[in-house]
Design goal:
Elements lengths: L5 H8 L4 H10 L1 E2 L11 H7 L1 E2 L1 H14 L5 E7 L6 E8 L2 E5 L10 E5 L2 H6 L15 E4 L3 E2 L15 H8 L4 E2 L14 H7 L8
Length: 204
């Protein structure tokens, strides 16, 4: 099991469903990285009370791990000019869902209705665009990444987890946009761009 303090384990052990994990992530403020980029461990996230997407995904993975589930995450790959998004994966009755920490109205939680990981990944495609011009940026997704591959000490590390972050960033991705159809993608409408600009947590 992941090495956690008694208090941290108590907090995460209460999150015994994906819905509860998502509710907890939503209660954490957004990590705006005012003092520089971070890749905090789950223990540090609990200490600071804030997280961004990869930090939230790793915390969600640990919460699932404590419930006897595999701590799986997935990277959503994007083109230059945008940022990859990391989600935690869960499965119910043979169908996939996702837990997500984001500061926007899109790229959020997914109910367990997807038969395959490709279906799940594709559900994010039309939400993934630049708010400046509506250009869609999602180009692919990674295979499931089991966080156990990185051992367990990282869960309570006081240092930033750049080694894990870099390993995830370098994972190969499965393309989703047919080459012959790239030129046929339509930019998101201004109403969509306006909705996507809504922020849950303002910067400090």
């Amino acid at each position: 099991m992941p090495p956690l303090s008694a208090d941290d384990k108590k907090i995460l052990s209460r999150l015994n469903t994906p819905n509860k994990i998502q509710d907890f992530l939503d209660s954490l403020s957004q990590n705006h990285e005012e003092k520089g980029e971070t890749c905090m461990s789950p223990a540090q996230v609990l200490k600071e009370g804030k997280a961004h997407c990869i930090e939230g995904a790793m915390l969600a993975g640990v919460a699932l791990w404590l419930q006897g589930e595999k701590p799986l995450i997935m990277s959503l790959k994007v083109s230059r000019g945008d940022f990859d998004h990391i989600i935690a994966l869960y499965k119910k009755n043979g169908h996939w869902g996702a837990i997500s920490k984001t500061n926007h109205a899109v790229l959020r939680f997914r109910d367990p209705i997807y038969r395959t990981l490709r279906e799940l990944a594709l559900s994010y495609f039309h939400e993934y665009f630049l708010t400046t011009n509506g250009k869609k940026t999602m180009i692919g997704y990674s295979r499931p990444i089991n966080l156990k591959r990185f051992g367990a000490k990282w869960v309570s590390s006081e240092d930033d987890l750049w080694d894990i972050g870099n390993a995830i960033f370098k994972m190969p991705h499965i393309p989703i946009v047919p080459k012959e159809n790239k030129e046929h993608l339509r930019n998101a409408h201004k109403v969509e761009r306006t909705a996507a600009s809504i922020k849950e947590w303002c910067g400090e």
